[in-house]
Structure formats: C-alpha cells, structure tokens
Amino acid sequence: MSQPALMNTYGRLPVTFTRGEGVRLFDTEGKRYLDCISGVGVNALGHAHPAVTEAIQTQAGQLLHTSNLYSVQKQQQLAEALCAVSGMDNVFFSNSGAEANEAAIKLARMHGHNRNIEIPHVIVMEQAFHGRTLATLTASGNRKIQVGFEPLVRGFIRAPYGDIAALETIAHNNDSVAAVLIEPIQGEGGIRTLPPEYLAQLRALCDKHDWLLMLDEVQSGNGRTGKYFAYQHSGILPDVVVTAKGLGNGVPIGACLAHGKAASLFHPGNHGSTFGGNPLVCAAGLAVVSTLTSNNMIEQIAESGRYLIAGLKKQLESAAHVKEVRGQGLMVGIELTTPCAPLVTQALAKGLLINVTSERVVRLLPPLIINQQEIDELLSILCPLILAWADQGSAA
Ligand SMILES: *Cc1c(COP(=O)(O)O)cnc(C)c1O
C-alpha cells in the first residue's frame, strides 16, 4: 500500500477547489460555493480580487525577492501604510501569524531584560490561539495543540479571558511580568469578545506596571471587525500589534507592529527572516491596505456585520439550542449548546463553506466584500441547518 505523500496533520473535507471569484469558489466538478470562511480569514477581499491580482502580476514581472540584506521599497511602503492606519511607529514583517507572535514574544523578553527581570513572563489567556511554533503553542490556551510536544517553553502565565481583576492579582503576586498578549476577540477560541471597557482597563494596568500591551490581531485585523484593527473600537493604542491572515489576501505575510518604547527594542542582529517582507508579498499587502482604506470600505464592513448579526439573531436566538450569536463586524460566532462539527459537512453539501471552532461555535469569516444579497443567501442556507440541529444535537 502506498503511503500518502503529505504528513497526516489535517482532517480535510472531501472537496478540491480550482477557481475563485469574489465570495465564490468552484470545485473540480464545477459546483459553486458561497465562501463564508475565506481560507480562515485570509481572503479578506475575496478570491481573485483585481487589485491584488494586478499587484502580484506586476511585481512578479519585476522582482520577487532580494532578501533583507538590502532595503526593500515595497516593504518600506507597506510599513508606512500600516503605521498610518494603526497609529503604531514601526513594523517587522514575517511570513505567518505565528512568526509575527514570535517577534512580539521576543520584544516582551527584551523589554523584561531591560527592566532587569531575570526570567520575564508574558501573561496569556485561557482559550487563546497564537500559532503552532513551540513558543506560540505554549502561549495558546488549548491543551490539545500542546500534548506530545513537551517540554513547553518557559515564561508564560495563564489568566482567564476578560477578567481584569485576575490580572491585578497576578500583578500583586508577581514582579516578573513583562507583557500581556491577548486577542481583542478570540477567533479559534470561539469568537469570544471582551467587555467593552476591558482594553482601556488593561491599557491602564500595563502602564502602571510597565508591561507591554501586545494584541494578537492575526485574525481580527485588516478590517475584519469593522475597524482597521479591533483595538480601534476602544480608543486605546497598544505597544505591540500582531497581524497576518487578511493582510496578504492569500500570499503569506505577517507583521509585528510596535509603538513607543516597544518600537526601539530591536537592533540589527536581534531578529530576522529570509523571506519576511519580500517585494511580492508586500506588493499584495499594499494592494490590500489601499483597497481596505478607500471608498469607505471599513464602514461598509461594519454595516455588513451589523446586518449579518441582526439576521442571525432574528432567526436563531429564540431556538433553545442556540446559546448566543456574537461577534463584531464580519467576525461572527453562533454558539450552540452541543458539539456541532457535522454542520460543516451539511453546509458544504448545500454549497456553503463555514467552520466550527471550539466544538460548538459555528464561525463565520466571510470575505469583507460580501454584499447584502450574499448575506441573505448565507442566512437562507445556514439558519435552517442550525435550527434543524436541535434534534440531531440532542441525539448526539
Ligand atoms: C491564525 C492565527 C494565528 C496563527 O497564524 P499562522 O499564520 O497560522 O501562523 C495566530 N493568532 C491568531 C489570533 C490566529 O487567528
């Protein structure tokens, strides 16, 4: 018997796509799907967006890569665009979300050592997801992704999500904290949101104790929540912001943005990446940022999000097995009272791509370009499936 050529790391659905256009994907049989997961929040502008295609094609004909031995014009421009839209001071580019978090964790440790903390710690949250490298899987609050990979990395303290008093207790008992790393909305953790005043309280706590406030916006960034970054809903400025997913619309790019004291921690030799921020991915990133920041697109995303969440609430909230509809912008979760993974296959059969995370949360991350008519189509397929889950869910 022949061995599969790919390592056995994913449980894949039995479908292969050959082409995409806007919110649509087409499989090898020519069947059409409404994509409401966007490659896990990556295809923010949808598939084959003309501005991104054009940027990639032009750049590919000029220069793909030179390395960071030299100055890279497109990287410089993308950094300036990201600083302008975020209020941050500077940027380090990586190739993924996990790697961008690694840069943030290294900044935290550097900050801790500058404060003469011998073993600096980063506070991380229950149910957090920060990636699959050794440090980021340690930072993640999910035992399943850690098991088998011990020894884990030192230097993390776990706290409950959304609980400021718990962080005050840690501050009281521990003088080795250098930073807090938190998602403004947890994605893999089940689209869990923070109390509205939380980030402002956290900002004050971090200032009081000289901790870096580091936000993982790998999933929530780049317009997803109806602001360019989710922290912009709360009027604070973090010390570090990490992003990736939607930034390249499909090309692999991550970014770690820093502000104030965090922006001057790294010096030549402290960190690096061979591919990071190469001309190709930065050309795509520039097309994404400039598209998102023109024609009121972010306001439209906020509006689409309100429409989607209102539609879901109207149709689902009275169902006994629907615990909560929540989210912000086009980052939306529907929590059921029972595990509901089979809904993914049921939706697939009906030409709708969704995801279930944290076992019982239906997660929607549609392309940010989705229009009202397409949201109506999403609602008309998804809501009956979820309502019918009442019987199957209790039987399961
Ligand atoms: C997806 C994700 C990551 C990991 O990104 P990769 O590109 O898969 O390494 C980290 N943090 C959050 C919040 C994510 O959603």
Structure, described:
With 396 residues, this protein is of the alpha/beta class. It folds into two domains: 17-49 and 296-395, Aspartate Aminotransferase, domain 1, CATH 3.90.1150.10; 51-292, Type I PLP-dependent aspartate aminotransferase-like (Major domain) (Aspartate Aminotransferase, domain 2, 3-Layer(aba) Sandwich), CATH 3.40.640. The protein is 36% helix and 18% strand. The chain contains eleven helices and 17 strands. The protein has helices at 38-41, 50-62, 73-86, 97-114, 134-139, 164-173, 198-209, 279-292, 297-316, 343-349, 372-395, and strands spanning 17-21, 24-27, 32-35, 90-94, 121-125, 156-159, 177-182, 185-186, 192-193, 212-216, 240-243, 254-258, 322-328, 331-336, 352-353, 355-357, 361-364. The chain has a seven-stranded mixed beta sheet, sandwiched between helices. The chain has a four-stranded mixed beta sheet with strand order 1-2-3-15. Strand 5 (121-125), helix 5 (134-139) and strand 6 (156-159) form a beta-alpha-beta unit. Helix 9 packs parallel to helix 11. The longest helix has 24 residues, at 372-395. The model has no long low-confidence stretch (mean pLDDT 97). The structure holds pyridoxal-5'-phosphate. Pyridoxal-5'-phosphate binds at residues 96-98, 101, 129-131, 183, 187-188, 216, 218-219, 244-245.
